[in-house]
Amino acid sequence: MLAVFCVPGYAGQYTIFKGDGSDEPGFVPPPRKMRLPPPPARSVSSAETTIPFPPPPVAPVARTEAKKPPKPPVMFTKIKTGHLLDWCATPNDVNNLLKSMKGMMNINYTMEVKSLAEIDPTPQNNPIIYRSGHYHFSFTPEERAKLRKFMLDGGMMVLNTGLGSSPFYVSAKRELAKIFPEVHIQRLSSDHPIFHAYYDVDRVKYRQAVRKTGFRGNEPWFDGITIGCRTVAVVSRWGLAVGWEQNEDESYQAYSSADAQKLGMNLFAYATAQRAWAKQTVKKMKFVDARNEHSADKMYMAQVVYDGEWKTRHAGLSVLLRSFNLKTKIPVKYALKEIRLDDKRLFDMPLLYITGHENFLLHKNEAAQLRKYLLNGGCLFAEACCGRKGFDLAFRAQMQKLLPEHPLKPIPAGHSLFDMPNRVAQLGVTPALAAQAGSAAVKPVLLGVEIDNHYAVIYSPFGMAGGWEMSQNPYAHGYDESGSVILGQNILMYAITQ
């Protein structure tokens, strides 16, 4: 639910266009004192290699000029608009962040300021597109298409809500929803890699002005769009820019300067790692059913649709089904049904699959029908994609509420589930999980809800879908490719034979 915080006394005083939101509750104007950055120094052409007119009494001598070092690569491109008061309210924000990054991380990057029309849509040339503001805004359909391609190709968009001004925040979320209508935008949980990419910033210090709005949390507030386990766009609910400028004014609705700096560096580190990973995962193999192929008596699955980030990977399940078919010779249907839990067709589904990264809730009627489905012999296969704690905590809570008389418990290592069609004693894990576990291989961890002597729910708290696609995210806490496949095959075998 959107939190709207009122700041009285500004209605009509800072209007820049009709409908800009300056008369709406929660509008916060730009800082009263704006210092524009100095203009760039006049460049001298390298062709001027002789002394200009009038000539000296002797023959012209070529100048000896120190060679300029190569220009650092661009990391941030700041979007400018026709309203200077909006996009340039904190003119030195990105420059100061880059200076801090150079001093603290020993890396050297530069920035550019361009209109959206001028921006090169190639992520290698504009890794992070940054937009800051206080007012309502909107993109044209052409601009949305350009930004969508940019982000899907590996780029990242960062939207900074200037001093917590609600009109900008509302517009930013609305525009991202239009750019990616198939994805649910939601707040990122504190275990998201963005908050741990360089510094651990799962708790932050907010300024007094944030507390005066009534907000009491101490976790960073980013809303995000995640595609294929990569968050491609974030909106910061509270101001980052004044912290990057190291403006310590406590009357601003913003993070402390120290935490804003750390969050900015984390955004850089995350975007850099994810862009490199995205290059390797551009083309994914996905299996489909042959045309006119008879699908009766084939194993098939349905993926649960819920209000949240319910679809994290688009090809993984088809790859798992293909490997299962090759291993067992059991015919499978690759086409997945996508179904809500309150759909009456739910009871025709032999196996359900649910996954996600973040927190979620089931509606009362959805929970009631899922309970009925499980008590009547249905099977639910669940996975915390990338091993994310947000989904893990939510799923455990939902199961406790749904089936209080049937607790979710570890499946014993000697259970037959770990024997067919593969004998599974240890599995390789991702580098992130290996660093946490202190080993590159671990015993498989599955939890289950047992009903009438069979597991109606099988849940993996470690990520598997990225392994099925042979492209685990670099931040994923999960099983490696081979481990994900063989454990997934065993889960499918158990589900269809019980």
What can you tell me about this protein's structure?
With 498 residues, the protein is an alpha/beta fold. It folds into 2 domains: 74-280, Rossmann fold; 302-497, Rossmann fold (3-Layer(aba) Sandwich). The protein contains 13 helices and 16 strands. A 7-stranded mixed sheet has the order 2-1-3-4-7-6-5, with helices on both faces. The protein has a 7-stranded mixed sheet with strand order 9-8-10-11-16-15-12, covered by helices on one side. The longest helix has 24 residues, at 257-280. It starts with 73 loop residues before the first strand and ends with a helix. Mean pLDDT is 88; it is low at 1-11 and 38-61.
Chart the SSEs and their pairings.
Blueprint lengths: L73 E6 L4 H4 L5 H13 L4 E5 L13 E6 L7 H12 L3 E6 L4 H14 L6 E2 L20 H5 L9 E6 L2 E7 L4 H4 L12 H24 L21 E4 L10 H13 L8 E4 L11 E5 L7 H12 L4 E5 L4 H14 L5 E3 L16 E2 L2 H7 L3 E2 L4 E5 L2 E7 L4 H4 L12 H17 L1
Parallel strand pairs: 1-2, 1-3, 3-4, 4-7, 8-9, 8-10, 10-11, 11-16
Antiparallel strand pairs: 5-6, 6-7, 12-15, 13-14, 15-16
